[in-house]
Design brief:
Blueprint: H1 3-63, E1 69-76, E2 83-91, E3 94-100, H2 103-110, E4 114-121, E5 125-136, E6 142-153, E7 158-167, E8 172-180
Parallel strand pairs: 1-7
Antiparallel strand pairs: 1-4, 2-3, 2-5, 5-6, 7-8
Length: about 180
């Protein structure tokens, strides 16, 4: 072997190593760019979520201003004497809400959950709320009960809780209405 061949082989080997290193450098640069892009995407996702939350709050304030806001909640305690199937809410003789309950929703209510059944606008003045509860009562019989409350709506928000409890002394479910200020 002569020196030219060795020198050319050395240059070729050096060039291949240099190309390999350059490829690695390019790959690392692309990985860095992808990582930076991924970070920007995550930042954008967070900003979008915050914007979505702010828009939801603004929408609630615009659609349901505090001076006309009226909300009805439903809760249950124990539920051994009554299994809720559905509820219907009437406000001033107009049906404003109907809800059929799934097994998961009932489990959540029995664990202490509270459901917002209705949210709307109600002018100041006197109003009548009627709630109809359908389900299965004691001894597996179909059970339908209604409860009525007359309420006075002022210029502040009004919250009503419909609470289903067990009345063990009568072995019947009890339907309570509580107005929150």
């Amino acid at each position: 072997m002569n020196y030219k061949t060795i020198f050319i082989s050395f240059l070729l080997a050096f060039a291949l190593v240099a190309l390999g290193l350059a490829g690695q450098v390019r790959a690392e640069q692309q990985n860095n760019k992808l990582s930076a892009l991924g970070n920007k995407v995550e930042e954008l996702k967070k900003e979008i979520l915050e914007l979505n939350r702010d828009l939801f709050i603004l929408e609630e304030e615009l659609l349901f201003p505090a001076n006309t806001q009226f909300t009805v909640f439903l809760s249950m305690d124990k539920g051994q004497l009554f299994t809720l199937d559905s509820v219907q809410i009437r406000l001033n003789d107009k049906i404003v809400a109907n809800h059929l309950y799934t097994e998961q929703e009932l489990k959540a209510l029995l664990r202490g959950g509270v459901q917002r059944v209705y949210m709307g606008n109600l002018p100041s003045g006197r109003h009548e709320l009627i709630a109809y509860f359908n389900g299965v009562g004691p001894k597996g019989r179909d059970f339908k009960r209604g409860t009525t409350i007359a309420l006075e709506k002022s210029s502040s928000p009004k919250f009503v809780e419909l609470k289903i409890t067990d009345d063990t002394s009568k072995q019947q479910p009890k339907f309570n209405v509580k107005v929150w200020e």
